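PT: before anyone asks, these are the final sequences, not the draft ones from last week. 270 residues across everything. Please model them as a single complex and drop the result in this thread when it's through.
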Amino acid sequence: MKTLIVDDSRIIRSAIERHLKHFQLEIVGTATNGVEALELFKEHLPDFVTLDITMPEMDGLACLREMMQVKPEARVLVMSALTDKPTILKALKEGAKGFLGKPITPDSFKEAVQKIITD
Amino acid sequence: MASMQTHHEDLKVIVDNTINYFEEVCGTPAECGIPYLMNQEKVLMDYSAIIGISGIRRGALLFTAPRPLIRELVEIITASDSPEEQDLQDMVGEVANTIAGNARPVLGSEFMISVPVIIRGELLGMQLAQPASIVPINWNAHQAFLIIGLE
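LR: through. Structure below.
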């Protein structure tokens, strides 16, 4: 399963990569903002994406909307510190398959990924 | 302008988020010291991140911490014992972003936050909305500060 990691924090991208080693996933790219993410998404057409919301250039929700135009069957896990209900609902309405509130822990992350990639 | 009561409630939410952040990420909660009002003192430590607040509140939230604390957090999150400078700067931004973002379930979706701006060392002429409060945050023998100035 081709996977794209999108987060403006280098340590969070690093932590996600480390946790994803528990799964049979091929990481095809990492992006630090929505614009970069969209370019990589169009190039690689990943099956699974971890997507931050608060990022420079283009935020995650705008990016998600664009991604869904390109490949609506992509499974996107939105991960954000913005854990209010309207934001969660907006992410799901835009096409996310799951939402994980930050801070993430290894257990919460693995559980969320497992659920999305096996659904 | 928000009332003093609102200011105290905002402060409590953000401080609780900070305590919870350390508990969830590190397994040990931080402890909150006695808050006090900011005067002209220099409070910035090795690494600081400032988040602009807009929407239903206007102002800023700043988290500032010494290098050993930030380094320890990075080591926990990345399982690396040789973090680079960029990792440390990212870490302080991630803490500030998370504790500010986590305030939205209580303060509402119109509590808008900016991406963090990272400050390395002391910043001259820093202005925050008054009254700005300083909250000592103690964790694992380290002390950091949360500075909150909201109108």
